[in-house]
Amino acid sequence: MDISRAGDGGSPRGLTVLETRNLSRRVGPRLLVQEINIQVSAGEILAVVGPSGAGKSSFLRLLNRLDEPTAGTVLLKSTDYHSIVPRELRRRVGMVMQTAFLFPGTVAANISFGPRQRREAMASARITALLERVGLSGFADRDVGHLSGGEAQRVAVARTLANDPEVLLLDEPTSALDESSVRGVEELVQGVVRERRVACVIVTHNREQAARLADRTMVLKAGRMVRIGATGEVLHDA
């Protein structure tokens, strides 16, 4: 790796919410993620780009221990995430996948799922407010089987936000959507990050999307970070 081009991964924006230290994952002889060191601040969006098979999704899954690192670790607000109970970690580090995996039933039941798992009742007024925020006013009683792809992805975002995460992980969240839905979800993500001051990491194959959304961009190749910096500079030079 060209260290001078990769940089140290530090964020210039202030309070560090998420930090990786030599984060790595090996499966058999294959090193999927190799010694990645980054910091992501409150209110910042970091895009992760690179060729197919570069380790983008593997890296993202390490950030909330959906997969376990074989070396290195992740700090959440300076606390090693191995000391955080996995369910609590995944509440604080929420993930929205490429396809919205919603549970059968109503939109409201999906949104309140996380609090229910913690035996917390979610007030209908809060569900209503979340739906308004994601542009789905009046959808609380709608069956998820009747949603469009864009609507389902918005519900997935609302369900994640119901857990009050400090970090939002997005794995190709718009790749299956039409162009109008893509822009709607992008605007939603930007608004949520700005309003809630969460740290956001988005994996995307679309460099134009990275340019629209991200403050900084990290380029992965063969599991290694080969460049990180201001999005305009990184994408211009890549």
Automatic annotation (TrEMBL):
Entry keyword set: ATP-binding, Nucleotide-binding, Phosphate transport, Transport
Keyword Transport among UniProt keywords: yes
Superkingdom, taxonomy of origin: Bacteria
Pfam families: ABC_tran
Residues in ABC transporter domain copies: 18-238
Any GO molecular function: ATP binding
Keyword Nucleotide-binding: yes
Role played: Involved in beta-(1-->2)glucan export. Transmembrane domains (TMD) form a pore in the inner membrane and the ATP-binding domain (NBD) is responsible for energy generation.
Family: Belongs to the ABC transporter superfamily.
Protein name (database record): Phosphate ABC transporter ATP-binding protein
Phylogenetic lineage: Bacteria, Pseudomonadati, Pseudomonadota, Alphaproteobacteria, Hyphomicrobiales
